[in-house]
Amino acid sequence: MSTGEPAPTGEPTPTGEPAPSTSWTREQWLALVGVLLALAALLVGVIVWLFGDDQNGQKEEKSAQKAFVSYREASDAACAKYGPALAELGDGPWQGDPVAYAAHLREKNEVLGAVVRDWQALVVPDYKDMREKVAEAQSLALGSIRQYEIAADVMEDGGEDANPYIAEGGRVGMESITKSRAIGFNICPGGR
Asked: Where would you find the membrane-spanning parts of this chain (predicted)?
């Protein structure tokens, strides 16, 4: 009688039917390979969906980076054309003559203002957060110029001590230069 175990292949079962074959047919193998290929394609699709096709992203990144490098070079060239004028102005007269020193500050501010205006006239390409960083450096440069303008006004009026405004203008100007150098500018905003 039957023990519940299948009969060996080729021998009849207790009901008299032949036992099923345990070898796979060609159709079964092809079906298995088809299922495995479909699973592999699905796996690749999921990986691409999760991690993205980075080739286009890399190309866009490199293109934006090149555009920003070109922008930096154009900006430095625009700022550099004022280098000779700033060098000619030098450090200016002794502060003991407030009227002469105020005139010197105004001349220097005119040149530095032109440097920043020419720099701002160039369109910053969309690359990472560089627009914000460039705008911050430009804003600091303008803030420095404004402090020097206040110092010149104070000196011409013969009023209070202008040194705090001169010191603040220098500090803000150095901060602008530091931020500009951090993002790759070699000349802007100083003109030299």
From this structure: 29-52
Q: Angle CA(115)–CA(120)–CA(126) in degrees, nearest 5?
A: 140
CA distance 164 to 177: 20
Look over the chain and give the mean of its residue pLDDT values, rounded to a whole number. 86
Residue-wise pLDDT for 13-63, tens only, equals: 677 776 666 677 888 888 888 999 899 888 888 887 777 655 666 788 888
Please state the separation of Cα 150 from the chain's center in Å: 35
How is residue 101 written in tokens? 């020193």
pTM over the 0.85 mark: no
> Residue 6 and residue 63: Cα distance in Å, rounded?
69
Integer CA distances (angstroms), 99 to 69, 91, 158, 165, in order:
43, 15, 9, 16
Greatest distance between any 2 Cα atoms in the chain? 125
Q: How far is CA 108 from CA 1, 175, 181, in A?
A: 113, 18, 21
